[in-house]
């Protein structure tokens, strides 16, 4: 599963960066996927971060890039 953050939806709660700090960072007021983290959508903490993002800005998608 691929991970992405839609910056137009993110309102900067930083929860993703706290839940899965290996994959998400908090930069310039937004949650971002760290370089190399885009393929980490199968990790339980990444799934949880996506489910609990208050603005539903984190998307997990199937498929190869
Ligand atoms: S949890 Fe959601 S709203 Fe909060 S910083 Fe991460 S992507 Fe943005």
From TrEMBL:
Any single Pfam family the record assigns to this protein: Fer4_13
A single Gene Ontology MF term assigned here is: electron transfer activity
Keywords of the record, alphabetical order, are: 3Fe-4S, Electron transport, Iron, Iron-sulfur, Metal-binding, Transport
Residue ranges of the TM segments: none
- Region named Disordered: 35-65
How far does the signal peptide extend, from start to end residue?
none
State the superkingdom: Bacteria
- Does the keyword section mention Electron transport? yes
Q: What cofactors does the UniProt entry give for this protein? A: [3Fe-4S] cluster
- Role noted for this protein: Ferredoxins are iron-sulfur proteins that transfer electrons in a wide variety of metabolic reactions.
Q: Please give the name of this protein.
A: Ferredoxin
* Natural source organism: Streptomyces broussonetiae
State the organism's lineage. Answer: Bacteria, Bacillati, Actinomycetota, Actinomycetes, Kitasatosporales
């Amino acid at each position: 599963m691929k991970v992405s953050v839609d910056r137009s939806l993110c309102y900067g709660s930083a929860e993703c960066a706290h839940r899965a700090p290996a994959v998400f960072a908090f930069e310039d007021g937004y949650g971002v996927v760290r370089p190399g983290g885009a393929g980490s959508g199968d990790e339980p903490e990444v799934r949880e971060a996506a489910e609990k993002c208050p603005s539903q800005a984190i998307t997990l998608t199937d498929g190869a890039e």
